[in-house]
């Protein structure tokens, strides 16, 4: 073999070794995890290119070799397919995992809980306090809220309390729309299954009752009992006489201490001065309270009083109720038999 051929073969061998080494390095660069030890939030704005992102991560010493990742993305035709959004990169994610996340729009989701028993104003305020939400509503402007949902009434209670997931940039109205839709669907399914003989004219009446139940107790196993008491009072034309409705009617003037004078102050929601259900719900009721309003517990109790431990004492007669009030509210021990 002559020397020139020998040199050629040696050169080819050297290039082959170099190529293999480069391919191995390339493989390592696109598969080795990013340099993060805790979740990293990456925000991709509309108009950002994949090159912009790679440079940013390289400058922050998170990505080891942006060139190799850019080459891979270009060969695969993925570099121009990334989507704008907020992304949460977890420790262990590789450059290829990063590219897949951006191309498939696996954006970060935030969560927010709307609680049972909240008023609509409280719900809107909680939504707007979330840093990922865009504010568009005024929680105290009832007319603008009605206009937003194209309805002629203030929709207190018409939003389902639940945990909602959303991406950054979601508006407060969009979250409320989800809650509205869930409540409408729930009522549409539950209303036809209601017990016979209930003193309701529409699903809205059931929602009003459910909101009162929600505010009266935190114990789910008491919901149906309380519903039964209120249903029987309505059927017997007895005032509901429930404090939460009075408090709702007082609005911002209520300071946390309900007085005897306030119980006598007539408002559309004062169930001590007026018969029947109040004109609107007083809070956001959950599914259990709605089910209780449609399926109250049978019985003959007409009264209940708080025991002081979160539960209630139920009574059939006014005499029994007065004794329970003395025991649990005034601290008068029951008489020995």
In short:
This protein has 13 helices and eight strands. It has helices at 3-31, 50-59, 66-76, 95-103, 120-129, 142-148, 172-190, 203-216, 223-235, 243-250, 260-263, 287-294, 318-328; strands at residues 40-44, 85-89, 109-113, 133-134, 163-167, 170-171, 303-306, 312-315.
Strand content: 5-15%
Biggest sheet character = 2 strands, antiparallel
Q: Mean pLDDT score, rounded? A: 91
Unreliable residue stretches = none
In whole angstroms, the N-to-C terminal distance is 122 Å
Strand order of the largest sheet: 1-2
* Fraction of residues in helix: 40-55%
SSE-based structural type = mainly alpha
The quaternary structure here is: single chain
Q: Which of globular, elongated, flat, extended, rod-shaped describes the shape?
A: elongated
Radius of gyration: 32 Å
């Amino acid at each position: 073999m002559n020397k020139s051929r020998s040199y050629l073969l040696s050169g080819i061998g050297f290039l082959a070794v170099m190529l293999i080494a480069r391919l191995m390095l390339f493989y390592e660069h696109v598969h080795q995890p990013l340099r993060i030890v805790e979740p990293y939030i990456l925000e991709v704005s509309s108009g950002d290119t994949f090159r912009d992102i790679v440079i940013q991560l390289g400058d922050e010493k998170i990505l080891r070799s942006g060139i190799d990742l850019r080459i891979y993305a270009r060969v695969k035709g993925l570099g121009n397919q990334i989507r704008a959004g907020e992304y949460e990169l977890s420790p262990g994610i590789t450059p290829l995992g990063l590219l897949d996340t951006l191309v498939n729009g696996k954006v970060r989701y935030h969560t927010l809980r709307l609680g049972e028993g909240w008023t609509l104003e409280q719900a809107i305020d909680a939504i707007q306090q979330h840093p990922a939400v865009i504010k568009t509503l005024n929680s105290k402007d009832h007319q603008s809220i009605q206009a937003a949902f194209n309805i002629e009434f203030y929709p207190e209670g018409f939003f389902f309390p639940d945990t909602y997931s959303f991406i950054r940039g979601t508006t407060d109205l969009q979250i409320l729309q989800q809650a509205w839709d869930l409540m409408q669907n729930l009522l549409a399914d539950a209303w036809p299954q209601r017990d016979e003989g209930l003193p309701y004219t529409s699903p809205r009446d059931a929602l009003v009752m459910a909101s009162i139940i929600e505010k009266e107790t935190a114990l789910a196993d008491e919901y149906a009992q309380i519903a039964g008491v209120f249903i029987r009072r309505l059927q017997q034309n007895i005032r509901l006489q429930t404090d939460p409705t009075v408090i709702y009617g007082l609005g911002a003037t209520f300071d946390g201490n309900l007085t005897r004078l306030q119980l006598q102050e007539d408002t559309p929601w004062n169930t001590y001065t007026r018969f029947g259900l109040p004109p609107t719900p007083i809070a956001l009721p959950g599914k259990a309270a709605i089910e209780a309003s449609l399926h109250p517990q049978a019985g003959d109790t007409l009264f209940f009083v708080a025991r002081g431990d979160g539960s209630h004492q139920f009574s059939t007669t006014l005499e029994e109720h007065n004794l329970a009030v003395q025991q649990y509210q005034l601290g008068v021990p029951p008489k020995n038999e």
